[in-house]
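Supplementary notes for students who missed Thursday's class. We covered one full example, reproduced here. Read the sequence, then the structure, then the short commentary at the end.
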Amino acid sequence: MSKRVLWVLLALVTIAAAFAFDNVRRAGELSELTPHPLDCRSVSGLIGPEDITVDRGRDVAYVSATDARAFMKQQPAFGALYRYKLGDAKPAQLYTADRFHPHGIGFYSDGTGPDLLYVVNHETETAHAIEVFEVNDSGVSHVQTLRDARLVSPNDVVAVRRGELYVTNDHGINRGPGQLIDDLSRRERGQILHFKSGKFRLVASDLAYANGINAKPDGSELYVGETSRRRMRIYARDASSGGITLRQTIELGTGTDNIELAPDGSLYIGAHPKLLTFLRHLSDPKVLSPSEVVRVVDGKLEQVFLDLGGQLSASTVAAPYHDRLLIGSVFADHFLDCELPGKARPAP
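Structure (token representation):
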């Protein structure tokens, strides 16, 4: 073998090693985590409480849960919506059905008609929909299913007006090895879809794993988590066209998942501080994945909670509910009901 070939091979190996090291660093794997505990109780009675949102008018929280590991293995996987009120021993099941595997959820109320709950549903690994439910004091009733070929990998949903939604596709392609390649390379192919007047359309397509989405109460801004880049984007929204324009990017230093709003306008974000560990946890429940909650207020970042995975692995959402914080997970058989501290500490 010639020296020139050896030098080329050495250069390629060096580039590959540098790329791998950079990915490990950017995924948070080299960071040293210091636990930041809260006083919590474990609430069981469901599997995979991935998203939680609070209906403050009825003083209850809604929880979407699916046995995600069974679903990914194409085994029978139970999925349901639940309702939880502070002090309940366990959540009450509201709705389940065949081919119902709920993911992100969004509650909408404007006082002009029935309150609505929008739910991302993975009917199968390759067939997805948005389910619409009317909410009443006794429960929910299914009223509509929204389907479109553009829903290739939906993750979360938010309503800004009655019948007007934004949905994230965490990847721009459907299930398969291409998604893992995008995750490891942090390719920016995640999407945001806009739905109005019965039609979906693409309004953004350059996000690195578009995850949780929420909106300012007046609908003027969208907040979107970008998991692979460990940041959150803030978009200005044009109310007439539904178009969005990137206004700000906030580096969070952790793998952003779902985003919930507090009554004071601050944002609570469930997150994964070590993304490659999370991928290992995905395939092996014995591998614990750290859980983190951060709060964004006036553009400043605070850490609210950090657990190394023993209390709760792979946190996905943190919903403020009175003086409590409900923290969910994509795979766990419980969620946490925690005392919300009066003062968080600055994020590391």
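Commentary. The chain has two domains: 1-30, 34-346. The longest helix spans residues 3-26. If anything here is unclear, bring it to office hours.
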